[in-house]
Design a protein that fits this description.
The chain is an alpha/beta fold and 505 residues long. Among the domains are: 157 residues, Rossmann fold (3-Layer(aba) Sandwich); 115 residues, ANL, C-terminal domain (GMP Synthetase, Chain A, domain 3, 2-Layer Sandwich), CATH 3.30.300. It has 15 helices and 28 strands. A 9-stranded mixed sheet has the order 2-1-11-10-14-15-16-17-18. A 5-stranded mixed sheet has the order 4-3-5-7-6, with helices on both faces. Strands 19-20-22-23 form a 4-stranded antiparallel sheet. β24 and β25 form a beta hairpin. α1 crosses α2, α2 packs across α3 and α6 packs across α7.
Length: 505
């Protein structure tokens, strides 16, 4: 085994020290550390024999995902995750942009349809005894430095996704710091609730448990309760957390809300869960309080793909609700007087096709916030999302949206109001059915949310969307952030009509 990558060396040590301990399980599969090390060796050898330089991964959550991840590290192959929530345009862009030579898939027909039939199934590769389809692209690998371990595509809030080039030097400090912050030990079980194609879940549910000698539990996404791009069965997710005896898991705000509501409705409890990380988008302090009330030890964090995901995190013994925690020990961060949050450049990865970072020693994240005297970071939104009303008041839409979506009747929200007398919103109802009943429920929900907001941030009128915001329809990123421009354009006529009607006239 090539031990040049730190985690590959850790895996070899674990396989020698406790070969029978379970490393990965999910989808009916269980691999000990010895079996995992052997599977990684075998696939790494196949990658090298076939002279694969850039490998795409289009797999559901399962142990094979982790085997491919680790084998790519061992073989010095650049891995390009291709999440199922990517649109066809995003997927085709990632394939061509990185010059992906080969894709490993467990749903080849779906993937071929998504890419417009541009690929062909050429062979099967066995990964831990299970055959997976190999699809060759014909692309020539992009000019990628040889030390790039993976290229993660941001799926950004607007425009074409950027490929963030991460070396193991970027990733390892995050893995080490998370093991320490969460207190991961050998007997722990870390459950994946989000697609492993998302960098945060990849690191938290594959690399962190393997580094610590723990168990990564990787059920299919359907088994977690996720339904398509935006649906969620919170009861199913809560039961999974309980039956799998998960000690740690990563939540998005919407999945946390679904599990909280399920626990509030039932007698199910999660006694084994000691660390529930939540991030990806803004989280209401009221939701955090509800989670604590049903026994979920929730810790909010913050990160960006450019810094290999997690940058700040609350943790046991260092927890301040309302903040996203302190920076991880390997990072240097600061807030400028205007609220611009910056990171010391040495921890920031370059983009594929645009490798030159700005000459400054500091890189702007684009987020706004402040550090308190004890070093906890409080965010107030994205600089480019903030708008100024016609009365000169600054509004961060994320703040208003978190208050709106805390209401049970509202599943999703996008808020607008640049240079206007009042703010408007596009709202997605939690239920489908009688339009009049939905309209009444939304009206009461907006009134309650407005009661918790200052007058300049309140919603004066709204549109109820016909469909949810999803990555598939281009209205949501893979980590749950709304694509504001796309949502506005999709509802432009209805929103402009609200201003023409002007309830404040």
């Amino acid at each position: 085994m090539n031990v040049s990558a730190g985690i590959v060396a850790r895996l070899a040590d674990h396989a020698a020290s406790f070969p029978d301990r379970i490393a990965l399980e999910g989808n009916g599969e269980r691999l000990s550390y010895a079996q995992l090390a052997n599977a990684v060796d075998n696939l790494a050898a196949q990658l090298q024999r076939n002279r694969i330089r850039v490998l795409g991964l289009a797999l559901d959550n399962r142990p094979a995902w982790a085997i491919c991840d680790l084998a790519a590290l061992a073989a010095r192959v650049t891995l390009v995750p291709l999440p199922a929530f990517f649109s066809a345009v995003q997927t085709r862009h990632a394939l061509a942009d990185a010059g992906v030579q080969t894709v490993i898939s467990d749903r080849p027909d779906h993937f071929l349809q998504q890419t417009g039939g541009q690929l062909e199934a050429t062979a099967f590769w066995e990964i831990d005894g299970i055959p997976f389809t190999r699809l060759d692209t014909g692309f020539v690998p992009a000019q990628i430095p040889t030390d790039i371990a993976r290229i993660t595509y941001t799926s950004g809030t607007t425009g074409t996704p950027k490929g963030v080039m991460l070396t193991w030097r970027h990733i390892e400090p995050v893995v080490r710091d998370l093991v320490d912050a969460v207190g991961v030990q050998g007997g722990d079980r870390l459950l994946a609730l989000n697609p492993l194609g998302v960098l945060l879940e990849n690191i938290g549910s594959v690399l962190v448990p393997i580094w610590a000698g723990a168990t990564g539990v990787l059920p299919s996404l359907n088994d977690t309760g996720l339904q398509g791009a935006s649906g969620l069965d919170g009861h199913r997710m809560a039961v999974l957390l309980a039956t799998q005896r998960a000690n740690a898991a990563i939540f998005m705000p919407q999945t946390l809300l679904g599990v909280v509501e399920a626990l509030e409705d039932t007698a199910t409890r999660l006694p084994d869960l000691r660390f529930a990380a939540v991030g990806g988008a803004s989280v209401s302090t009221r939701l955090l309080a509800r989670a604590e009330a049903v026994g979920i030890p929730v810790f909010e964090g913050y990160g960006m793909s450019e810094c290999a995901s997690v940058m700040c995190l609350n943790r046991p013994g260092g927890h301040r609700p309302g903040s996203v925690g302190k920076p991880l020990p390997h990072l240097q961060m600061r807030a400028l007087p205007d609220g611009d949050i910056q990171v010391r450049r040495g921890s920031v990865a370059a983009y594929l096709g645009d490798p030159a970072l700005p000459p400054s020693d500091w890189w702007s994240t684009g987020d706004l916030g402040r550090f308190d005297d004890d070093g906890y970071l409080y965010l107030r939104g994205r600089r480019r999302n903030a708008f100024i009303t016609a009365f000169g008041r600054n509004v961060s839409p994320e703040w208003v949206e978190t208050e709106l979506t805390l209401e049970p009747a509202i599943a999703q929200a996008a808020v607008f109001g640049e240079a206007r007398k009042f703010n408007v919103a596009v709202l997605v109802a939690s239920d489908r059915g009688n339009r009049d009943a939905i309209a009444r429920a939304i009206t009461h929900a907006v009134r309650r949310a407005n009661a918790s907001l200052p007058d300049y941030a309140r919603i004066g009128a709204w549109v109820i969307a016909e469909e949810a915001f999803t990555p598939a329809n281009g209205l949501l990123t893979g980590t749950g952030r709304v694509r504001r421009e796309a949502i506005y354009n999709a509802h432009r006529d209805a929103l402009e009509h609200l201003y023409r009607e002007d309830p404040h006239a």
